[in-house]
Amino acid sequence: MTPELGVCYYPEHWPEEMWAADAARMMETGLKWVRIGEFAWSRMEPTPGDLRFDWLDRAVETLGAAGLKVVMGTPTATPPRWMLDKHPDMLAVDAQGNPRKFGSRRHYCFSHAGYIRECARIARIIGERYGRNPHVAAWQIDNEYGCHDTALSYGPSALQAFRVWLADQYGSIEALNTAWGNVFWSMEYDSFDQIDLPNLTVTEPNPAHVLAFRRFGSDQVVAFNKAQVDVLRPLTDAPLLHNYMGRVLEFDHFEIGADLDIATWDSYPIGFLSDRLEADEAHKTAFLQQGDPDMQAFHHDLYRAVGRGRWWVMEQQPGPVNWAPYNPAPLPGMVRLWSLEAVANGAEVVSYFRWRQAPFGQEQMHAGLQTPSGADAPGMAEARQTADDLARLGDVAPGKAQVAILFDYASDWAWTTQPQGAGFDYFRLVFSAYRALRRAGLSVDFISATDTPQDYRLILAPGLAVLDDALVGRVLNGCDLAIFGPRAGAITRDFQIPAQGRPGLPNLDCSVDLVETLPPESKRPVVGGGAAAHWVERLSGTAPDLLRFEDGTPALKGTDGLWYLAGFPDDTLWDRLIAKATDTVNLPIHAMPQGLRRRRTATHDVLINYNADPVTWNGIEIAGCDVLFLERDDI
Ligand code: GAL
Fold first, then answer.
1. What is the average pLDDT across 81-85?
2. For 403-584, which CATH superfamily applies?
3. Which residue spans of the chain are classified as CATH 3.40.50.880?
4. Which among 551, 545, 473 has a CA at the least distance from the CA of 510?
5. Which residues lie closer than 8 Å to 490 by C-beta, 6 or more apart?
6. Pocket of ligand 1 contains residue 162 by CB under 6 Å
7. pLDDT tens digits for 37-52?
8. What is the Cα–Cα distance from 232 to 225, expressed in whole angstroms?
């Protein structure tokens, strides 16, 4: 498969006379896909029932006639103003009880039955109109679920749906009281109708209540998406997709992914570095105009799993964005590097956001491939160059990695519910593991807690909140060595300490007797180097100690094929652990210099240099902000 490029375009923002020239220029740039429609509801249906699709018909025709494949968006992330007159209670409500009002986007509650019906209605209208249109080659449902912190709502529709969901999950109020431990602080209920949403309580609500609400919240997003999938499926044979985000964990992406054909995500490397990544100032300065060297690949690999092998970048940062605290420009070469890196990780399509910078609205300072007046912005030449690179490269067959990380959204919900220590964060823990594997030159796959992995040398499952024997069995059967912990099997699904103790790993005599959390400046050193930070467990049991803390307590215990880790490793400890584990399973590793990353596909060994300066590795020089595709086995 030869990867392709695309762009996001808003025909409703520009005079119709410009469309044909825009389309021709997109083709000249080597772009093959164009996404449209996802925010255009007010132009599709200016007043209820007044459908105006003539302009969209002409837009699809103009783009298609130029040779572009259209991704049609359903416009449900931006309900028009009249929708609120029709459904005044459709707005989401924040945890403080305030409505999240009209005037931007994503102003809806996922549980509002009336709004879900409106979404199904507009999806049907668009599906009937364009489902068999030869130019429409894919469908995007909604836009970025969860963006602007919108996955959860604390309003009346959510409350009503939550009670129904609870009754369905627990069957009886007695069962719920027991499962949640409501005898604690006399929190017992007599009926499901008494249960409120877990906000505005005096002090923290019962973690079981919060975790149930988080599971419910995820199910609502899945159901919202499914309502449009069900409408569109019979109307089109084109693939259905959604564009996910970076470090947004509020809903189970694997579950939505199961209903769709392709996972896509929106990659803004420089924005992410400044607004959603823990790193020291030196790191943030070194990669200010490039983005973190692992953040993009992490999501590429994660969404490859969510898409069951099929994934795209739907929105690729092309220049400075408008929404991060600081918005520097990418260094020359980075737009091309990000695009080619995605390809190395298996992307079928990389699509830039957006074609031309908007002169109005919230994102007028957000770069496009063109400036507002239609001149080329710096990203344009790099898009062109990437298209040439892809044409030269031809097929890039994705390869299976030898190492996998088990990623579990529900573990994040659990640990944000009760972090126990301010530094303990699920994403941060998993990302630190991912980074360590990449520092060792390894390529990484992700698996979910319901997958049946096969033929991995090593599987890491850090922070996996709930363990059951079937899951542990699948992981152990799927690899030579599995490493669980820290904080594995620490709770039940209903947020109680498991009766059999923690972590409850079959075949490993190891139990967690005590947990401590530490402020960032305090670490628990491990004999031989490295330390645990944020989170430390005191382990006992007959399983051999493979590493010890300097105070003599075990830092790592294990037997053949199964290890348990007692703390949140700092970088040095992760590096030692990966070296030890890969040595145990005879998997060669190659230390990578800072900022240089390697990704193996079935056909290529790809070297990606996030540094501004050239780096030499294994006798190969890679220029700053450059990517080298080497035939496999060249290294
Ligand atoms: C994404 C979103 C786009 C646009 C972009 C700006 O989150 O899907 O519509 O807002 O960010 O960077």
1. 98
2. Class I glutamine amidotransferase (GATase) domain (3.40.50.880)
3. 403-584
4. 545
5. 465, 497, 498, 502, 503, 512
6. no
7. 999 999 999 999 999 9
8. 11
- Bridge pairing between strands 620-622 and 615-617: antiparallel
Q: Is 100 in the pocket of ligand 1 (CB under 6 A)?
A: no
Nearest to 595 by CA among 196, 167, 164, 282: 282
Question: Ligand 1 pocket test: which of 243, 247, 363, 369 has the largest number of ligand atoms within 8 Å of its C-beta?
Answer: 363
Would you say the pTM of this structure is higher than 0.85? yes
Strand partners, 207: none
With a CB cutoff of 8 Å and minimum separation 6, the contacts of 375 are none
Tell me, what DSSP letter sits at residue 235? Answer: G
Kindly state the average pLDDT of the residues 390-397. 91
The closest alpha carbon to 494, from 265, 217, 297, 214, belongs to 214
User: What are the residue ranges of helices labelled H in 100-182?
Assistant: 113-130, 156-170, 173-180
Active-site annotation holds for 4:
no
- Report phi then psi at 401, rounded to 5: -85, 170
Closest-CA residue, ligand 1 atom 12, reads 321
Contact assessment for residue 228 and residue 76, using Cβ atoms and an 8 Å cutoff:
yes
Beta bridge partners of 313: 265, 350
Q: Mapping DSSP to helix (H, G, I), strand (E, B) and coil, where does residue 393 land?
A: helix
Q: Whose CA is nearest to atom 5 of ligand 1?
A: 353
pLDDT at 599 over 70: yes
For helices 571-584 and 426-439, angle between their N-to-C axes, nearest 10 degrees = 60
CA dihedral for 625, 631, 633, 634, sign (positive or negative)? negative
Q: Give the long-range contacts of residues 620-627, CB within 8 A, separation 24 or more.
A: 622/596, 623/333, 624/331, 624/333, 625/290, 625/331, 625/332, 625/333, 625/334, 625/337, 626/333, 626/337, 627/336, 627/337, 627/340, 627/341, 627/344
